[in-house]
Write a structure and sequence with these properties.
Structural class: alpha/beta
Order of helices and strands: EHEEEEHEE
Number of helices: 2
């Protein structure tokens, strides 16, 4: 199952709080097919029916069914650049 770094947890919670006014909101990661190596990321007000829901502290991440296979052994990290833009990175879990 996908895990989050401390930075990712903080940034996901901040993005979600700013974008949706719902405690059910989170960051949704999706993919067009299970073999894809690129993913779409968007803030969502709630998970979709088949999403895997990952809760880390106050952060919620929804992983779409196709993406969950590719991300099962990954860790999500996030950083802010000098202009305040968020950059997500994936790495292998230890």
């Amino acid at each position: 199952m996908l895990t989050l770094t401390e930075n990712a947890t903080t940034i996901v919670k901040t993005l979600t709080t700013q974008a949706v006014d719902s405690p059910e909101g989170g960051l949704r990661i999706s993919s067009p097919d299970p073999n894809a190596t690129t993913f779409s990321v968007a803030v969502a007000p709630a998970p979709e029916a088949d999403d895997q829901v990952i809760v880390d502290g106050d952060a919620r991440v929804f992983v779409e069914e196709n993406a969950s296979v590719a991300l099962a052994d990954k860790v999500l990290d996030a950083q802010l650049d000098d202009q305040g833009a968020v950059h997500f990175q994936l790495g292998l879990q230890a």
